[in-house]
Amino acid sequence: MSGAASARSSAVASRPKQ
């Protein structure tokens, strides 16, 4: 299920890192 992992990783990367 690389698709789910990719979507999750993308969301985390999109989040603002403070």
**What string gives the helices and strands in order?**
H
Question: What is the overall silhouette?
Answer: rod-shaped
- Give a short account of the largest sheet: none
Poorly predicted ranges: none
Supply the number of helical segments: 1
Secondary structure: helix percent: over 70%
Oligomer: single chain
Compute the separation of the termini in Å: 30 Å
Determine Rg (CA atoms, Å).
9 Å
Task: Output the structural class.
Answer: mainly alpha
Mean pLDDT: 67
Q: Find the count of extended strands (DSSP E, 2+ residues).
A: 0
The amount of beta strand, in percent, is: under 5%
Question: How would you describe this protein?
Answer:
- With 18 residues, the chain is mainly α.
- The protein is 72% helix and 0% strand.
- The protein has one helix and no strands.
- It is rod-shaped and about 25 Å long.
Brief characterization of the structure:
The protein has 18 residues and is an all-alpha fold. It contains one helix and no strands.
Describe the secondary structure blueprint for this structure.
Layout: H1 2-14
